[in-house]
Design goal:
Largest sheet: 7 strands, mixed
Order of helices and strands: EEEEEEEEEEE
Helix content: under 10%
Number of strands: 11
Strand content: over 45%
Number of helices: 0
Structural class: mainly beta
Radius of gyration: 13 Å
Length: about 120
Amino acid sequence: QVHLVESGGGLVQAGGSLNLSCVASGRTFSTYIIGWFRQAPGKEREFVAHITWAGDNTKYVDSVKGRFTISRDNAKNTAYLQMNSLKLEDTAVYYCAAKRVIPKEYDYWGQGTQVTVSS
């Protein structure tokens, strides 16, 4: 069982930056792949990025490539999503999630943190 808590969201102007954190409970954080997802009002939840167990493999949705960076610190049970050059369309609730195996669905989800980008 993993409990995930996101933080770091807020209101930022377009072009600005935010760094989201996802803190996990337990002593098995390094055995989980961590993903970031987002859901904008009226839209379906979409994948943003994921990072594998040791942090040596990452994947991003095309719309954030070059602007967002996912990372993790297994010693701190924490994953991060550094978001730069934010756009209005990045406004959403951002969720982190955890799973053990790549082909599987994510098993655990945080409660989400709101990111609002203003013009």
